[in-house]
Amino acid sequence: MVVFESNKGRRIIGRLERGDNLLESLLTTCEKFDVKAGFIRGLGAFETAELTEYDIEKGDYRPPFRLEGLHELLMLNGNVSFKEGRPFLHLHALLSSVKPGACTVYGGHLLSATVFACEFEIVTSDDVELVRKADTATGLSLWQESGKLKAKS
User: Fold this and answer.
1) Do the domain assignments include residue 144?
2) pLDDT tens digits, residue range 50-101?
3) What CA–CA distances, in Å, run from 97 to 14, 44, 64, 69, 73?
4) Does 80 fall in a domain?
5) 62: domain range?
6) Average pLDDT, whole number, for the chain?
7) What span, in angstroms and rounded, lies between the C-alpha atoms of 150 and 111?
8) How far apart are the first and last CA of the chain?
9) Which residue from 4, 113, 141, 143 puts its CA 20 to 30 A from 129's CA?
10) What's the pLDDT score for residue 145?
């Protein structure tokens, strides 16, 4: 188990513009506000999005599923950490498409999105730095044991 306590944090609240690249915009925000660890949530709508999921048997992500056209962002949830010395976002999303008589919901690991509208919040943990490295048990890049996680002095 990897567990760390944080006693210092901030809330960064913002809105992205239509046409913004979601991941680039959130990474720019994290760099601007020096976010080393935190959680992200958001609502809105996307004009395009790419979702995937991890294939346990193959030990890799499946080919992306691309959504075109306006889809409501029901939930954006994820975290911020560091990977290879740079801020890294791990995001999941639920998106919906409503047509007469039917509502389809898509979800998964979010690879990319073009914003129609998006309001977000980043809750930081300013006294820790979360670092991702390869985990041999899962094949994923995960937060590592204490000692690899660094408490700020």
Assistant:
1) no
2) 999 999 999 999 999 999 999 999 999 999 999 888 899 999 999 999 989 9
3) 25, 13, 18, 9, 10
4) yes
5) 11-132
6) 92
7) 27
8) 23
9) 113
10) 56
Percent of the chain, pLDDT > 90? 75
Residue 145 CA to residue 141 CA, distance in Å, equals: 13
DSSP 146: B
pLDDT at position 146 over 60: no
CATH classification at residue 27: 3.30.1330.80
Strand 65-83 relative to strand 38-52, pairing:
antiparallel
Total count of domains within the chain? 1
Asked whether residue 123 is assigned to any structural domain, the reply reads yes
Q: Which alpha helices (H) appear in the chain, and where do they start and end?
A: 22-32
Give residue 62's pLDDT.
96
Sole residue written with tokens 């949830």: 77
